[in-house]
Specification:
By secondary structure, this protein is of the alpha/beta class. The chain folds into two domains: 3-63; 99-456, TIM Barrel, CATH 3.20.20.70. It is 41% helix and 12% strand. The chain is built from 15 helices and 16 strands. It has helices spanning 3-47, 56-61, 66-78, 149-162, 175-180, 197-200, 229-235, 255-268, 283-292, 312-317, 322-335, 353-361, 371-378, 407-432, 450-456, and strands at residues 83-84, 98-100, 120-122, 130-132, 136-138, 166-167, 184-188, 205-209, 220-222, 243-245, 274-279, 297-301, 310-311, 343-347, 366-369, 445-447. Strands 5-15-14-12-11-8-7-6 form an eight-stranded parallel beta sheet. Strand 6 (166-167), helix 5 (175-180) and strand 7 form a beta-alpha-beta unit. Helix 4 packs parallel to helix 14 (407-432) and helix 12 packs across helix 14 (407-432). It starts with a helix and ends in a 10-residue tail after the last helix. The mean pLDDT is 90.
Length: 466
Amino acid sequence: MFDGDEDLLANIGKIVGLGALGATGAYFLGRFLIKSLVSQAGSKMLSEPYSENIFETFTSTSRINPIALVELSMRAQSGKALERSLGTPYPLPDFSGMRFKAAQLDRKPVSNEVEVDTTLVLGKKAARPLRLDIPITIGGMAFGLALSRQAKLAIAEAANKVGTAASTGDGPMTDWERAATDRLIVQYPQVKWNHDPDLLRQADLVMIEIGHAAWAGAGGKYGWEELSPELRRVLGLKRGEPAIYHSRLPEVSKPRDLRTLVSELRKITEGLPIGVKMACGDIESDLAIALEAEADVLALDGGQAASHSAPVVIEDNFGIPTVAALCRASRWLDSQNARDRVSLIVGGGLSSPGDFLKAIALGADGVYIGSAALLAMTHTQIFKAVPFEPPTQLVYYTGKQKNKFNPKDGARHLANYLRACVEEMRLATKAIGKTALRDLSRDDLVAIDEQTAKIAGIPLFYQSPD
């Protein structure tokens, strides 16, 4: 070893020693400062009057839900009516308060080898009914006014893979969506588009939109400057013309007008099923008008139904919970002996095979999903947006990350989700002792709480059938 090496090692040792001493000093200094700050802040909090105490922030906001607190500040910032994506975050009565009865000895479970019929026919008495392989359809989500082209194509491909229908929603039907979708429900909304007879003839089912839960009967408007040139073109807007959502269909000002419209649409489409979609308000009275109009399909948007963007005051304060709306509608249709001539579908907060099965047992012919479909098709792709953007930015037409969304992957994951749900529904139906989903009934259910028992008209779990 050279003399210079010894000096170098000695210097390194001094540096290491000084560093260790500095780190030790910083550690103890840090502890002292933290303790002093906590002590001072804690003493003030425990001794100062509320008018000067930071703890008042906690007491003054503790009575307000954190969601409401943030939305309060949003209103204070904008001075405008607040809108929110994907429905109300507040809990409402749902299908979790009931369970199926297992078939054992009196009723026997079905053999594994037996196939369960999962098919659904919409428009039972229509000249050209819509036949589906599964009882789950993809609800209305509009191109441009909600979803991107990539997202709509993913929905179309997934629907084709599992043999179900997709919907235009209240957006325009485009040539590419029609070409991509085997079974397409064209919505006839409270706007100027989708009313062209040539377009309506391309549908597999026409759904007259009276309203939907997240908007109820509230109207709205997109200004000319808010819309892209592409949207202005497909919506058929003239220069400077806004896209106006009427609070009700202009051609339906009185009950008998709905019958006239249904008849005209049936004639135009040469016998396609004609449906009526509505939010849940005066359910029995509204259904009576739709039934009198001879609608083939009734679609109920329950209180948990969502939208791409909707008024918070509507989402959080309007609409009857989906399970209650369905039970009331089902009982009313039974009382009118109308079940053999009209199809009943329901949506709003449904996401699991259990939800779907219970809805069918309570009287729905089928269900439709929206938010669940978006969550399924974005799957792990959400990490292309999260944590800096919400996942919806991947699929919205105005989404900052929409070009990162892979529609092929989205279609595959949405189709997988639907396949898995239907397979679980088949399994559960056999355990109930049935061989077709349409054979399920409220007799197969028990309630686990009194509220659910009253809503659904089913016995509590500790009550015998006698």
